[in-house]
Amino acid sequence: MGSIGTVTPQAMHFAEPLRLQSGASIGDYTLMYETYGTLNADKSNAVLVCHALNASHHVAGTYADKPKSQGWWDNMVGPGKPVDTDRFFVIGVNNLGSCFGSTGPMHTNPATGKPYGAAFPLLTVEDWVSAQARLADRLGIEQFAAVMGGSLGGMQALSWSIMFPERLRHCIVIASTPKLSAQNIAFNDVARQAILTDPDYHGGDFYEHGVVPKNGLKVARMVGHITYLSNDDMAEKFGRKLRNAAEKDDYAFDFGVDFEIESYLRYQGDKFSEYFDANTYLLITKALDYFDPARAHGGDLTKALSGTQAQFLIASFTTDWRFSPERSREIVEALVSNRRKVSYAEIDAPHGHDAFLLEDPRYMAVVRAYYDRMAEELSGELTGAAA
Amino acid sequence: MGSIGTVTPQAMHFAEPLRLQSGASIGDYTLMYETYGTLNADKSNAVLVCHALNASHHVAGTYADKPKSQGWWDNMVGPGKPVDTDRFFVIGVNNLGSCFGSTGPMHTNPATGKPYGAAFPLLTVEDWVSAQARLADRLGIEQFAAVMGGSLGGMQALSWSIMFPERLRHCIVIASTPKLSAQNIAFNDVARQAILTDPDYHGGDFYEHGVVPKNGLKVARMVGHITYLSNDDMAEKFGRKLRNAAEKDDYAFDFGVDFEIESYLRYQGDKFSEYFDANTYLLITKALDYFDPARAHGGDLTKALSGTQAQFLIASFTTDWRFSPERSREIVEALVSNRRKVSYAEIDAPHGHDAFLLEDPRYMAVVRAYYDRMAEELSGELTGAAA
């Protein structure tokens, strides 16, 4: 089991405008992507990995000039890893509107010659999937062995199974949900309000002012981060430990840092505000809020999934209170009602929603076993073809 | 069961400085308070009601000039109500540092002639109890029949039982906790960061600038409010209902309001930012974070409660995820270990942490039954004294 080694991102340009769910459309645009492994002769071993809020096309491997630039799912994707790049051709793609190279609000709006800013159209999960399908076309991939993702990435995988049923054999949805709850939306709106009311946001056109709404982004990330961790995990890692306990075992009696958890969260918030784009954050939280494939079917998820053809792996984590196992079970039940083939794993892991990104032997074993079966199918097909 | 009718707040001035836990002290200061019912001859029927984050001395009744100014616990306190003012003399007091009349950051600092602002000292739950004890002295109340409160108010009641064991016969702690968890502190720190980074905060001295950090307060209140409601309650009340559903059943595709829950939370945040003081919010969240009576006893809550003499009623609500029943049970167990008399009620109510303020037949019945027993004790004592 080795590392994927150094990787190089690629850019694919699309000249034809993409019509969006909002009714708007986005003119010519670029998608950044990376690939790992080798596409087989009949192009049947491709796996698309969809990313969540703050991730990108950089799923695995490192960049030559940055030894610490490991991909966000490097523990999952690589030679001999659960998603084995010795057998599968894996594609990571940065979504439209994101801030890691694909066309987004910080890029020049051809209509004005200035950065899009507030003029960048709002996108939905389905819009991202449409854009990804065009990329697949250009790469000559008619059908994916699997589309997979965690959290918001899982929503994209699920949308693939609905929008392009014949284009994926397997759909892998981890730590996700068929729709956000009122509480999920509420937390997202707190984050948005923090950004929107930051005077440095300038109505979305902060690029022209040479500033960044860092304070808003920081608060947004802090509140988001709390929802990614489990209560128990936070208690165990931080509890009520004081930051300055070594020096003096007492409270500071000011508004600086008293507790380790404050120090940790502020650091996470500050770090995030250094690299993430505020408009992207807003746009992605809206895509999360809007996701609700059952909506077009009177709220009936079974109906929404009735046209799917893929086989499914659904996985959830017991301590995930953002998208709890209950939410994954809704998907499973709707699929079972449609007599789809579904494997469901509810993994007892302490790390809350973040668990989908972390090393956990049981979790890794579940995904590995699923991909092993996929690989057998693949070689079976090849054998069948040769017979 | 009637209303308490119109009430009039009173002010008590204290000339002697109060030494605080931080080492600082606060010079002469004023406490606002209200009383309901009549103090009996031997001054044995007094009940002190301690308030939580955004409440005040105005516990029950209305103000003559404001018919809608009902006290925050008017459903609990009044003639014939669970805390029956026909039998008990109830005192509500606004804590030091709050923004409803007692001396706080918005008042003139005698040392500078300007508003305290950032110079107002940080306070602890124990400091509030010390100030309340002085008020009791001035009112001639040596021993309370009960000290009671919910949430942060419950922390004050618990501190009374530790700091002045002989001064209360009953201690009533509702929807509270012996200390905040890392997650509780994390949410408080998000709220603080929203306020502290609002440019209109001016390092706490915004009074002199004629502005108020409304955006920060709004975000702070929004995140707080989410933690007061239960996930299920929010789902039932709001779900994914669209704000504009009557006009057009579709998303807005902008950063305005899409969902009812957003509208509700933003409204709550805006309303709060109109009347609440930012420095008070910061100060009270720190008092919450600092509360940890077991800390002085190596983390041993049983030791911390070993000197208590009161009888206890502890109550919690099943859907309260801010201060869950588990946290109340910690208090119960520590009291039982000390062989104290404890009644514990775990009430199955849907409304999360807010349940302690709401009408719930089972909850009201528990408090009523407890006070009925207290009233019997009182009349028993009187009979005994007359014999």
From TrEMBL, chains A, B:
The record marks 322 as: Important for acyl-CoA specificity. Substrate binds at residues 221, 354. SUPFAM superfamilies: alpha/beta-Hydrolases (SSF53474). This is Homoserine O-succinyltransferase. Pathway: Amino-acid biosynthesis; L-methionine biosynthesis via de novo pathway; O-succinyl-L-homoserine from L-homoserine: step 1/1. Residues 45-359 form the AB hydrolase-1 domain. It catalyses: L-homoserine + succinyl-CoA = O-succinyl-L-homoserine + CoA. Belongs to the AB hydrolase superfamily. MetX family. The active site is at residues 151, 320, 353. One of its GO terms (molecular function) is homoserine O-acetyltransferase activity. Pfam families: Abhydrolase_1. Homodimer. Transfers a succinyl group from succinyl-CoA to L-homoserine, forming succinyl-L-homoserine. InterPro entries: AB_hydrolase_1, AB_hydrolase_fold, HAT_MetX-like. Its EC number is 2.3.1.46. It comes from Massilia agri. Keywords: Acyltransferase, Amino-acid biosynthesis, Cytoplasm, Methionine biosynthesis, Transferase. It is found in: Cytoplasm. Its main location: cytoplasm.
